[in-house]
């Protein structure tokens, strides 16, 4: 029984540390129905397009999409270029607008608005 309480305490403490870090650094994670504001923590590419992962999760219109990835379709070259440029410059905080889950099964991005 004590081990369960220790795990709960550690999880709560970890959550408080993350919240304090976000507050200290001014990052404001915000999740809404069709957009999310957060920090891009990972990117990758596929033939379908460019995938990004934000620390804040995904908008609620993307609930049920696989993992935390959001897809920028390959035909949205300007959006992909913007994300890649900002990520390379270390400016990773952005508001990402989505259209929901597309035919690919991924949460699909239609706008990337850098915060910095």
Outline of the structure:
With about 120 residues, this protein is of the alpha+beta class.
Explain what you see:
The chain is of the alpha+beta class. The protein has a single domain (28-114), classed as OB fold (Dihydrolipoamide Acetyltransferase, E2P) (Beta Barrel). 30% of the residues lie in helices and 36% in strands. It has helices at 2-24, 77-88; strands at residues 30-31, 35-46, 49-54, 69-73, 93-101, 107-114. It has a five-stranded mixed β-barrel with strand order 2-3-4-6-5. A hairpin with a 2-residue loop joins strand 2 and strand 3. It is globular and about 30 Å long.
Short descriptors:
2 helices; OB fold (Dihydrolipoamide Acetyltransferase, E2P); 116 residues; disordered N terminus; five-stranded mixed beta barrel; 30% helix; 6 strands; alpha+beta; globular
Query: Tally the helices: what do you get?
Result: 2
* C-alpha geometry: globular
What would CATH call the class? Mainly Beta
Which strand order spans the largest sheet, edge to edge or round the barrel?
2-3-4-6-5
